[in-house]
Amino acid sequence: MLPKELVAQIRRIEIHTNRLVNDLFGGEYHSVFKGQGMEFEEVREYLPGDDIRLIDWNVTARAGTPFIKKFREERELLVMLLVDLSASGHFGTVSRAKNQAAAETAAILAFSAIKNNDKVGMIVFTDEVELFIPPKKGRSHVLRIIREILYFEPKGRGTNIRTGLEFFGRVTRRKSVAFLISDFFDKGYEHSLSVAHRRHDVIAVQVADPREREWVDVGLIELEDFETGERRVVDTSDPAAKRAFEMTVQMIEARRKRFFDSISLDTVRVSTEHPIADGLIRFFRQRERRRR
Question: Are 62 and 80 in the same domain?
Answer without folding.
Answer: no
